[in-house]
Amino acid sequence: MPVRKPSSKLTAIARQSLGEQVADILREQILLGDLKPGDTIPERETSAALAVSRTPLREALLMLEVEGLIEMAPARTPMVAKPSLLEVTHLLLVQSALEALAGECSCEEATEEEIEEIEAMHQTMLEMMDNPDPVEFFKIDMGFHEAIVASTKNLPLIKTHKQFHARLWRARFLSARRRSAREMAMIDHGRIVEGLRRRDKELVSSAMRQHLRLAIDNVRVAFAREETENNLLSGESGHSSTVG
Amino acid sequence: MPVRKPSSKLTAIARQSLGEQVADILREQILLGDLKPGDTIPERETSAALAVSRTPLREALLMLEVEGLIEMAPARTPMVAKPSLLEVTHLLLVQSALEALAGECSCEEATEEEIEEIEAMHQTMLEMMDNPDPVEFFKIDMGFHEAIVASTKNLPLIKTHKQFHARLWRARFLSARRRSAREMAMIDHGRIVEGLRRRDKELVSSAMRQHLRLAIDNVRVAFAREETENNLLSGESGHSSTVG
DNA sequence: ATGCCATATTTGGTATACCAAAACTTGACA
DNA sequence: TGTCAAGTTTTGGTATACCAAATATGGCAT
Asked: What average pLDDT does this structure show over B81-89?
């Protein structure tokens, strides 16, 4: 609604700026796959579609760019980031360090209730192992990791983890579809939960690290598979996305 | 220069947008201490002072806010972030994890030349131990850490580290003025350099971690000292900055 | 038929005008 | 004299107009 509202009632609370709201919308679209890597986001067209002016849209684009979700070149239409395998590997390395730290801190900072909640999520995942829908399983998986990070009460850590999380979402989703990957992930999760219960920093930290390292391998095969699929579809055309 | 330049010569390259340039200027001002924590950055006044319009200034403010260098509330004038001791501690914990990871990766990725350069910086610092000017010493100290991170070639890691670096700059500068802190830091640096030369991931990683943990202690005493100084000056007025 | 250059159109970058919500001021009333 | 309320001013939020660079397109010369 780009129109004025001269004085309608009280303007509700409107707690966050339009730019942030737009950023949330776009972020969700990217995460959900409505906007795929490589898709462009022209300013005029998109702002019109969202019924806002270009200014808040540009704010949103700027935020997402700092977060690494989209790429903006000097005079080039903004594009959803399309990380290479190398870059995803780099991101996962950082994420593994962040989560290992989170695990350590969580042993000291997490309340009993928080640990119980984390355990509950793990249990839910165990029961969902045979669920054919990978999306639900994946969401809880991500929630499991988020809950551990949140229990540290370390705001900068939580925020940074969240950003990497968003950038890795797609890659991890693609790689989490394999049944075998799920099974191995659950083993790691089991060790993590056990470590948290005993508040054993070493155990949690190393389990976290191994879990993410496993993710690197899974992503690698996911990339390889996507590559071959693309080649089958377009026969040798598209540029390889496996090299940074 | 808010005026139009109808067609003056060729407009040079102008590689980065005005907003980024402004962000660079403000970031430097904050790092150099020209803008101190708690200082406000009113949009109109600042944009006039920099001879740009509000639009690129707001872009810059937005970037710095995402980076955590300034704080922006809904209808409140932007302010240079004033992290509490708790928050600085949290930041240092994350930074320690990032640098520990950097140390590990550097053992695998750094070239011989890069390691030699890092060693050279260490040597320079050793020779500067008695330099009365803490600023120069500090700059090289920061360069030492940056060089190690850069040698990993992990772009997301480099970028994230840089952001935390900026947020921690002031606190670390204040805490690095103590002679004893410098001496202990040099011991850690020595271990780090030795580890890199032997490409011993465990050694480098643990040395990095210990080094940053030491920094946490130093920051704590620096905060305490600043607190007492403020109390002496203003007699019980200012709100304590030691609690998040 | 093809390659190149001029022009038209699209797109992002910047400036500015306008609006609404806070913050500050001031004056009247208790 | 203290306090509260209304008005003023300041500040950030949003929309829009305009500009320049980049790209696409079509015609012209070879």
From this structure: 94
